[in-house]
Amino acid sequence: MGILVDSQTKVLVQGITGREGSFHTRLMLDYGTKIAAGVTPGKGGLSVHGVPVYDSIREALEEHPDINASVVFVPARFAKDAVLEAITNGIKLVVVITEHIPLHDELSMIRYAKLMGVTIIGPNTPGIINPSEKCKVGIMPAKFFKEGNVGLISRSGTLAYEVARRLSEAGLGISTFVGLGGDPVVGLSMVDATHLFNKDPHTKCLVVIGEIGGVMEERLADYLLRNPVKKPIVAFIAGRSAPKGKRMGHAGAIAYSGEGTAESKIRKLKEAGVPIANTVNDIIRLVTRSIE
Amino acid sequence: MLLYEYEGRFILELYDIEKPKGYLARDPREVFTYVKLLGGRAFLKAQVLGSGRKRAGGVIFVNSPTVGEEVARKLFESEVLGQRVSRILVVKPVDILSEIYVGFIVNPVKCTVSLLASPYGGIDVEELSKRKLLRIEIDPLIGLTDFTKRETFKFLNLPKPLFAEFSALLEKLYEIFNDYDCEFLEVNPLALTRDQRLIVIDFRMSIDDNSLFRHPDFESEYLSRLSEREVVARKFKFSLVELDGDVGVIGNGAGLTMATMDLIVDLGMRPAFFLDIGGGASSDRVREAVKIALSYPKVKGLFINILGGITRCDEVARGIVEALEVSKHKKPMVVRLSGTNEEEGRRILESNGIKYFTSMEEAIEEAAKLFGEANGDTSRQSN
Predict the structure, then answer these.
(1) Domain count for chain B
(2) pLDDT tens for residues A68-94?
(3) Which of A158, B50, B266, B343 to pair with A6, CA 20 to 30 A apart?
(4) CB < 8 Å to B112, chain A
């Protein structure tokens, strides 16, 4: 079990012939992910680590009709077209690794996905990994993610790796980790992911790693007040010490005086009954306690 | 990227949107000339970024060229909203009947564009939301509809004969919003004049940084605004934010680096900068980042927190050592190195006499001992 991806996930890699696309295709294959095909316009007929490459998704689907997810490594200025191609061809899960996609491109591609019932993870995400099903659709280092019962949701990559590794060291593991992405506009939200984990019998506890910027954490707090989630949730908010009006590495990590501050997120989550961890150690301690 | 008012006015010009006549001055003498050209009475508007300029004293009315020159002299020597004033826009006063607010902003939650409008212009939008503010979501796949224009017009209670003009103005502003990849755009205020015209008095907009490649003119302006260090950061693809303190914070990944910075502050230290070397950094990138970090005179030490995933610890260690070899500035550093190729990374650090830690907590404690205030106090006592 776990959420969104499993052993039945058949992946298409968009931008498979690029440096990142080809490198991570090998790592995903090594992990056990079932990769059916790749697409790079103009490179049809090639093969990357044994994966056949096509010029278009339409052609890939003719040979591999069981493809049900796509992972996008296409450069920022062409990413919107790649995502629209995936949506138009009926792929229902699209993981967008690409960073620095123009804001208006993200807006229209995610809006279109919502209307077409397609789940977009990212953009600017490390992706998603489900250790018990040996499925990784993304770029996270697999060794940090041991099989277990903690659902991990994060807006940042490395911080989630740190937490995942420490959970494993503490004898706990991950049911699924999903990286939401560091951009101001993303597809799958914290509320969406929480909703999915709540329904997953394999997940016993949730860890949510938020950061400054936007209102995703505040909306999660509102959601929790209206929809009781029985599973314990532990949250961590990065950027408590960040100055206002400065973008901290992620395009989406910027707090203004009226919105997106760590204080506001922490206060709202606490009001919704979510314990807040101040350090990674705290996260492990709170998770251990909640599971006992 | 925020645009200066005068840059925004170029765009208004391109879209044939009415604004008060004005000139851009770079010294007090030019201000004198322009006030005179405009008939002896004018507003002097300091060209600074950010809202609240008027309250900060950045907009001043003058009633003669001589007064204009005098006021400008002071303005050019002062700071408004924390920025040096190097340009003043001299504009002709408009006979205003009422002031309106109109703006567009990306709504990241709904993936729409919010249209904002209020009959009370001239004050901050946060204040407006407490009074009377219309918010309509525009689907980016559909665009601005006629019924939305009608609703907005009615809400603003403008004189009926102005509908065609208002509707065309809204259309053009939405076009600018899309053509220039705006994060937000606001006209505040939009003036209704005594002779029943609509004139854009002040205009602010921000272009999404990731879209600058589509706007080469503004991209070069953006680059020219960066400091020397920021130019290097951009070239080598790491992210650098300068802060007020004296302990340099370096990490890989925005979240991890932010969390590291939070811990540094929790232990009473003050970060000098936030430097995220990003994912999969090569030793070249790390070397340039550490060189930049060492170049700040105010920095008394560096805290480097690396969790290798895609990033390889040996590359990081090599980069650190190379930076120390070429840099003139030597500063103490605490390195936490863990993850991919950590053995090799640690060997490199060790053979160069650099202290490292495996756990983040132990490393932070060491940093507190070396760089914390307590350390300063004890050394004073022992002296």
Answers:
(1) 3
(2) 999 999 999 999 999 999 999 999 999
(3) A158
(4) 107, 111
